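Re: beginner question about structure tokens

> Can someone show what the tokenized structure looks like for a real chain? I only ever see the sequence side.

Sure, here's an example I had lying around. Input first:
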Amino acid sequence: MSVPQRLLLCELADAYGVGTQYWSANGTLEIVEDETLIKVLAAMDVDARSEESAYAALEEAHLAPWRDILPACTVAREGCVSYLHLHVPHGAGLEVGIEFEEGGFLALEQGEDFTEPRLIDGMLTGQATFLIPGDLPWGYHTLVASVDPSSAYDECAPQEPSTHRAALIYAPARIELPSVQNKRGWGVMAQLYSVRSHTSWGVGDASDLAELCAIFGEMGGDFVLVNPLHAAELTGHMTPSPYLPVTRRFFNPIYIRVEDIDEYAYLRPGQRAKIDALAAGSRALSEVNGIIDRDTSWANKREALRVIFTAPRSHSRQRAFERFTAEQGKGLEDFALWCAVREAGEGNFPEGFDSPDSPAAKEARTVYAQSIEFYSWLQWILDNQLARAQRVARESGMSIGIFHDLAVGVHPVGSDTWATPDVFAQAVTVGAPPDVYNPLGQNWSQPPWRPDALARQAYAPMRDLVRTVMRHAGGIRVDHIMGLFRLWWIPEGNAPSQGAYVRFDHEALVSVLVLEACRAGALVVGEDLGTVEPWVRDFLADRGILGTSVLWFEQDETGHFLSPEHIRSTTLATVDTHDLPPLAGYLDGEHVRIRESLNLLVDPPARVWKEAQEERARMVSTLEGAGLLNAQSPRARLDPRGEAIDDLQDEAAKAEAAFHAAASASYSEEAIIEAMHCYIARTPAELIAISLVDCVGEKRAQNQPGTNNEYPNWRVPLADETNELVFVEDLPTNERLHSLIRGFTAELISQR
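And the corresponding structure tokens:
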């Protein structure tokens, strides 16, 4: 494109919230290519392929707000007076008020507005401004505008009075944080599928979660943060990643504990025998330190659940089930229909099922009525069991309880994209531009929400999923919370690095999150790692949303680790993250070893091993300087590999050997791990979390970003430093775990 055309394209992109440039992770200003901008705009139905079409789209963007009397959705929050702009025939009479969610009406006061009228579609249109007070009740209200055109100056104006309605979301100013109660909370992070008991069916479940809450609650913990429990495919192969669900609103029934269902106790002997046989087959999977087999576990569990589903329910149980389905409404019915149709098609959709409202889908609601009820029942059962787990957590002394995790997006061919296709952008996926850990960028294969569609639907998709996830939780972690502000869109056919940022109405999305959290009495943590505009963290902190601090990433520009007092207070502080190997593995170079074996290193392996050695040394030095490691304490004997380093010919092998020689001459990894946790106990962070894998000495990574089947992501069961499986029943007597918790909590108490 020539310069004038580039300027036009940039103006058009800005009108639709598409960034034309961005600051990279290494601090350089990157310019988004024209072709990428055109493709991203096309995903929002904006034609920028020619100068003529771009001018037309830009004109439409300028005129669109003036064509609507009321905005599709208005967002306001307590403590702030908000301005509502309406557009009516110039000179027309106008009255505006609010119908409250819980009943009642408030007339709004009109403010001054000297905006000049504009000719819109042949009619002179004026702008009027009304004031929304800062002391209204929270909720999802309705704006009502009554227009009397009799006094309008333009004879082309409509002649009859009219009434118009639109959504008003009124949110709390902020979420109350634990510091208000002079308490800093701590808890444990766990990948629930990997934390199994001898009675679970090959995958950790809701009963195991309740036990974790009881164990750590009695140790003084305040919460258990688990991986996303969103539903995956329930027919065919189940995607292992909890961050690529088919829906974010509903849960994965693989986490149901079959024997905890009330009706199980009243089954006939033959039915019990069948379920016990299925359980035995799945439990055998738990006793093997191999890759977690979700498909076999779920196949057995689903067959057992069908047996229980057909058993009679008491009157009260049936009424409770009916109340649940009525409360969840069409969203649950559509999800259950999607599951039923996929099951009937053995994982595929027959022709004609392109939406839940298609003629074929309407007919299927009758044909598959029993199957729809079954999949709805599964959600009710799991809802009951998650409620019990949260109840156990609170009864065990936890002040927060279960902390759920909210994935950033959904599977491209999941139930959410099928049930609400209009809210998703087409021909683009979400990811991240290149950074230090992923120099090629990332493509997460998830279609993004469209900002304009969210506003038209009054952010119902956001509020529905957040409300459901928070039903039985004391907190929610939002993965990649920057996605509420902007997301990296990658057009089909482009490399992950060839994308553009698209802005969202963060005030609206964050307000929905805050409103639902306050209604649920829950805390919110946002994963704000990576490239983040500084004002974003300030905005979140102002709304009472905690950020994330990971010790490995808390380094200054020289590579030195920040002292505890310089780490943000408004965070959930941890030592590591699930996208890195556990500490025992990281300290042993597992993060380099995996990437080297998978050819994911951009720099020469020898250099990466040397940098890892230097980073480990800086960490040890930092802990020594803090008095958490005694430099005079006995050190481990040198690893024999260090004696023959000079005999190695390969530079990478020599660098790796040097890494291990230096590590073996230092403190034990267990001593370093305990010291690192004592270090974060000295930070002013509102919440602190310890990873369960670090408590027991696990070395294997749960996830290696940038891979799919090259590494068994999200399929590694919990084990200790000797590679022996660790079961839930083992945790109360695990001395390594207790040693870490004792040292950490003692340090935490000393800081009060």
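Each token stands for a local structural state, so reading them left to right follows the chain. Residues 3-64 form one domain.
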